[in-house]
Amino acid sequence: MRRPPIRIFDAKGSYESIGYAHGSLYAEEIQEYTQDRIQLVAGGSWSGGPIAKGDIIDLAESMIPAHQRFDEDLFSELSALAEGAEISVAEAIIVGGFTDFVDAVRAQIGGETPPSLQEDDCTAVLVPDSRSEGAGFLAQTWDMHDTATEHVVLLRLEPDNSPAVIVFTTTGCLGQIGMNDQGVAVGINNLTGGDGQRGVTWTSVVRAMLRQDTAENALKVLLEADLAGAHNYLIMDGTGKGFNVEAMPSIRPVEELGNDPIVHTNHVVTSLALPFQAVRPGDLLEDSIRRLERGNELLKGGKVDAQRLVELTQDQEAICRRPEDPYLIESSGAAIMRPATKEFWACWGQPSDNDYERIGWADD
Prior knowledge:
34% of the residues lie in helices and 22% in strands. It is α+β, with helices and mostly antiparallel strands and 364 residues long. The chain has 2 domains: 13-114, no CATH class; 117-358, Penicillin V Acylase, Chain A, CATH 3.60.60. The chain has an 8-stranded mixed beta sheet with strand order 1-4-5-6-7-8-9-10, with helices on one face. Strands 11-2-3-12-13-14 form a 6-stranded antiparallel beta sheet, covered by helices on one side.
């Protein structure tokens, strides 16, 4: 299904003003999305029985101090977003950082995540300068439960005393994939962690990393964060420095980008992180392995440009996903970033059906 151009939200000023404007503009949509997320948890099919909404909110409230300690400016934005959308801060943590919240609840209550909650299964790549005419790329699909697609939005923000950013995300969420005007780019793949805790969720971590001026400093933010759950993070800056990190609350092995592209999907590939990975359904693991192999195949040999990455994200053999029972996961969008040139391309909806847009900076 062909979709209209991606929605862009522009804002500048204090973190509080940005958050309140975001929440106010999309208030009704954020409220609906929040209730959808809470109902997915409350159903209880993944924890052995129904869970009271009050218990869900209590857990999210217990994670508020970790977010406040982690980054006061971003916590101010999160709180103002909640106020503008007329939801609680706890609800904002749930809707914005849902997959990490799932890890935390799983660790607290027990049980496995059922098919209906398996989501965020992206395919992401780092392409070094040596394979891309001297200016590398970070690119990825963004795969989620198909109910999330309609909420995709691009944030183009100019916070006070902080780098301007272009962020691919969903309404009510601080940020999921992005690049700042210093040429620091961050992408993600979801991992299923077995060591979730009452920590800071990944979307705040992404935005905090995008406040940095180098890949090394962004990596430092990630390594020091009190993480709530598991994600793989990809980092790259304009000098070509890049890192891939399978980041769990308990361990964070780092792979530095060398002369070959790094492709990552949704299963752990390092022996250090493997003990902390929770069980994933066998067919989803097979799909993740197939996408990893296909990504490496498509990047084998030759120079890589933006068009080649467009074609990778559009690949219908394995990478561009369509919803099928029981998981209903689809490629809800995609992003291609070139830190050295600060170029950003984004696509809303399945890349195989829709066009990429080149996204300019607010002052372009």
